[in-house]
Write a structure and sequence with these properties.
Blueprint: H1 2-19, E1 30-32, E2 40-42, E3 55-59, H2 70-85, E4 88-92, H3 99-111, E5 114-120, H4 125-131, E6 139-143, E7 161-166, H5 168-181, E8 186-191, H6 196-216, E9 223-228, H7 236-247, E10 252-256, H8 261-271, E11 274-279, E12 289-295, H9 297-310, E13 323-326, E14 333-334, H10 349-361, E15 379-382
Parallel strand pairs: 3-4, 3-5, 5-6, 6-7, 7-13, 8-9, 8-10, 9-15, 10-11, 11-12
Antiparallel strand pairs: 1-2, 12-14
Helix pairs in contact: 2-9, 3-4, 5-6, 7-8
Amino acid sequence: MKKIIALLTVLALILAFAACPAPKEEIPDVQPTDDGSGAVVDTTPVPELPDPFGKVALVTDVGDIDDKSFNQGTWEGVVAFGEETGVEYKYFRPSEDADEARVETIRNAIADGATAVVCPGFLFETAIYEVQEEYPDVAFLLLDGTPHTPDYETFFTAPNTHNILYMEEQAGYFAGWAAVMDGYTKLGFCGGMDVPAVVRYGFGFVQGANDAAKEKGNVDDIDLKYWYSGVFWPTDDIKAKMSGWYGSGTEVVFSCGGGIYLSVVAAAEEANGKVIGVDVDQYAESDLIITSAMKGLTHTTHMALLALYANEWVWPAAYSGQTAVLGAADDAVGLPTAPTSWRLNVFTVAEYEALFAQVAAGSVAVSNSIDAPPTVDIAVKYE
């Protein structure tokens, strides 16, 4: 009897399972093509994928995104990236020039949804050091610096941070060479703060002027005045200093330090002098700017963010926790060659491109040492 009951139970289970419909297979919604070929195409809507890339935020230093210098050049790289990928981008400006304000602004950007934060300039070194481990899921891009403690005792770049430094000495070298080759003999270098990037620009400028003078055979004719203003914004003191230089015969001044170019240009306008710009192509700021010693801020910011984007918002191994030092070989420094920007009368674009190729290949070496001024044959007066 028990065997019969067991068999009946099993039979009931089999019949019940057979009565249940099989899971429905997902069948694409297909429609015949219009060409009569009988082929079909899948018209199932492609599901919208969630955007895993969030937002890019740029936090400015003491300037703004229209400063015609470092902030603007970097911001234009962020904009280029956003327009190419469709990723949302935004900028934030600290309330004051202080590490605490920069840290607060970075945190505000992240609270606003930023998954990548771009920080242009050495002023962010200690701020990035403080926040990079606090927000391990946020990617940080630091230009012109490396994260460290305020006392410079500890340097550390976390895996979610990538730093870019530039060979400013090469850009300065091109500017110094071009000025002398174009016929200028009374030169000036007006720097902002004597931070490493500005010093490399200046010492490169001295080396370029010296080598060009040796090439031309007029070393004894070249005089170069050299001075740091101590700030990155225009002041009456800078204008007065530059007016004195122009008044005593200086023909062209390399203005190297953010907004100080406004003071240098103002002095040049009164004396009919010439100016060399810095960081970005500043030709549009004055007809007196004959060229600019540039960093490829826009290009390198754009390319770094693309690498981050392609790796699903995590720095690739070659970027993660690493510092890239980019120069002519990376097309990351140089002079602008557009006809509107090239205001040199004797030195040609072709001659510049030949020099650029030599520097990029390493056959012309430019020292990046900032421990002491370069040893040169021309007369340099450090003020």
